[in-house]
Hints:
Layout lengths: L2 H10 L20 H4 L12 H12 L11 H10 L3 E2 L7 E4 L6 E8 L3 E9 L9 E8 L5 E5 L7 E3 L10 E3 L3 E2 L24 E4 L2 E4 L5 H12 L16 H13 L13 H11 L6 E4 H10 L12 H11 L14 H13 L13 H11 L1 E4 L1
Parallel strand pairs: 7-8, 12-13
Antiparallel strand pairs: 1-6, 2-3, 2-6, 3-4, 3-9, 4-5, 10-11
Helix pairs in contact: 1-3, 5-7, 9-11
Amino acid sequence: MSVAKKAISIASAEVGYREGRNANGSYNNHQKYSPAVPSLEWSQNQAWCQTFQSWVALKAGSASYEPRTASCRVATDWFKARKRFSYYPAIGAQVFFGSGGGSHVGRVYKYDATYVWTIEGNTNDSGSAEGNGVYLKKRTRKDSYLHGYGLPAFPEGITTADPALKGKSGYHYKATASAPVSSGSGGSSSGGASGGSGVARYTVTIDGKKYGYGANGAHVTTVGKALVARGFGKHYKEGPGPNWTDADTKNYADYQKSLGYKGADADGVPGSSSLAKLLGKASGGSATVTVDLSDLVKAARSNPSAKGQPVTYSGVKVVEKALQAEGLLSGTYVDGHFGTTTVAAYAAYQRNLGYQGKDADGIPGSASLKKLGAKHGFKVRG
């Protein structure tokens, strides 16, 4: 097997891997790759998209042909300094995103005239540069977010779409090309999320109650009965009960998928929104998500970076999803970080309501937030 194909095989076998979680269920950038790459141990608990590619290179025997770094910008500059950088894709190449290539990275396994298919660490279903695991992605080649490609000097040469490299030693020109990928389970998360079972095994707390593997109480039975009432009970052998088991997780995952959730968002552990929909309709109750205004304002004013920072408040994502539904925020930025892009989106929403000047500064106020919540199904406290 060529080095390029080996790198792709190793990387794609990790698809499905998820980083660890904090006690409150939020992802925390704790993963298995940093400790496994000599000299990059220090990068644990930080953004790890480039560390993942360094790990892949090490495992594939490509470490001599690729940079060992945790920085996308450093990796981009490494390829440029060696004249191995191109604006055209190549099989096994690293693909860099953002200004100067410093925001995010993936590895190319397929390309055509319009798209490039990649394996990316520390991303999510929406393609965020600060995600939760390893995913297969499909990117548009002419997207302004895509900076370019680093072409490793594989001993077998590299297959590229760059016409300027046609006929040159070490390069094989193809307008379109692809390499096989592994089916990858990715193993269990470093935080013990699956316990080796392939089923998510962590808990979350919603309105003071725990949900997920190991949770117990009458509320667990309520969820189970609601799932059965909706037709999502096939994994039960004895029916719903007060102890949350893998069967509950599998049934809940089926329910999440019916709502259109994918990947880590359909792992069978409840989120506030899906739980509200389940209980609100199945029991006649009103399990409405509540967002705390003061916590939201703190998150907005702290302006966390999209890379390497934990989510400051879980309610941020609820608001971001509402802004996305309003057509004001790209799904890429629905990541739980109330950064400058989310602030700008909220400011646009405020202007749509007629606010001006400092009243449309992107920091949520009670009146505007309550209007957003009334339209998109969440309540506001404070």
